[in-house]
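Quick note —
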Amino acid sequence: MLSVTVQHAFKALSMLAGLPEGSYILGRDLAKQSNIPANYLAKILWTLGGAGFIDATRGSGGGYRLQRAPETIRLVEIVDLFERHRNNRTCILDAAKTCTDVETCPAHRAWRQVTEAMDHFLETTTLADFAAHHVSDDRGSSI
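Predicted structure written out below.
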């Protein structure tokens, strides 16, 4: 239900949230540790920076870090940044159609419950919830 871009953004942000306060990570190191192609990650980081989620500092000791506290970043904010048409409820049986409560398809009621549950999860879960569960395998890479 979420794009690869959003999944990569979640992964990168959760790694940034796990950094010690005041420290930075280089983009190339973040890409390597999160297993995200560097060029793809650079575009994601550019968008996140423009939206005020992260800081970037050049020079020795520079890199990326969170600009906001992880507990203040709701997942819905990140999803909405990358998936502007998320709330466009196309019909699960016919992508050209939009289901409404008045004009429904056979799957409408069940699909609505799924999307409402997903919306609730995204609105109530913060980046801090992800960062708390961020672990590394024994090679030091993120999983």
